[in-house]
Amino acid sequence: MPTQAELLNLLRWHIDAGADEAIGDSPTDHFKAASVPERMQRQAVTTGRVQAAAAPPSSEAPRRRASVPLSLESPAAAEGSADQLANAASTLAELRDAMQQFEGCSLKHTAMNLVFGDGNPDADVMFIGEAPGADEDREGLPFVGVSGRLLDRMIAAIGMDRTSAYITNILPWRPPGNRKPTTNEVTICLPFIRRHIELMAPRVLVLVGGTSASALLGRSEGITKLRGRWLVYRSDDPGGGFEIPCMPIYHPAYLLRQSALKRDAWRDILAIQERLQSME
Length: 280
Ligand code: URA
Prior knowledge:
The chain is α/β, with parallel strands linked by helices. Helices cover about 45% and strands about 10% of the residues. The protein has 13 helices and six strands. Uracil binds near residues 169 and 253. Uracil binds near residues 136 and 147.
C-alpha cells in the first residue's frame, strides 16, 4: 500500500507533466470495469486458456470500461429540447433553471459549474464570449481568468464595469481541457444564448471572438474579417423578433498572444462607446 507521501509525489509528478485535470469528453465509470480484467483476458487468449481463465460468469461477453451514457438524444433532438426549455423561460432566473435541468449537452457532465452570466441584467451592452475556461468553471462566473482581466480592462476603457455591462458565453459549460467547442455543442446550446439575448434585450451586442460571431451571425468569415464592423443580430423570438446592432471584436485570449492587434481592439471598443453614447 503506497504511503500518503508517495501518493502525493505521484500526484505532483502528474501535475508537473501537465496532467492536471480530467479531460475525457465523457466521464468513465471505473466501478463498471470489466468483470474480468483486460490483462487477464489477453493473457488467457495468448496461453489458449480462454474458456478456463477468461470466460465471464454470465453468458454476457466481458465489456471494457463502460462510459456513463450521457444523453440518449441525437444532436437534433437535444437542440429541440434546448429550444423548448429556453422558450418556456420568461425570466433570466427561469432560463438559468432550464439550463440546469438540460441533459442534452455532454459538457455539463465534465464541468464543475454552470456559468450563466455576470453583470447588470439591465445593461445596454452585452458581451458574449465562447465558453468558460478552468477559472470560470471553478467560480461559476464568466471571464474571471487572465483573459477576463483583459476584457475587464477593455470594458473599463469605455467607462463601464460589471455593474453597468453584462457578460456571458455561447456555451455555459467548460469544454474539457479548454478545447474549442464542437459545432454540435454550439448548435445544441444555441437556443439558450438566443433566449438569453431576448430576455436581456440589450441595445448593443459585442461578440467576443470568432466562435461567438459565427454562432450568432451564422457567417463563415473569420474574426479578422468580421471585427470592427457593425452588423445586425436577428432575434427569432416567437413573441416578436427584433434586431440588435452588434460588433464582433477580437477575443482577449487572442489579444494576449497577438499584442500587435490591441490597437485594432482599442479602435473597436471606442466605436462601441461612440455607438452607446449616440443612443443616449
Ligand atoms: N473565454 C471565454 O470565451 N469565456 C470565458 O468566460 C472565459 C474565457
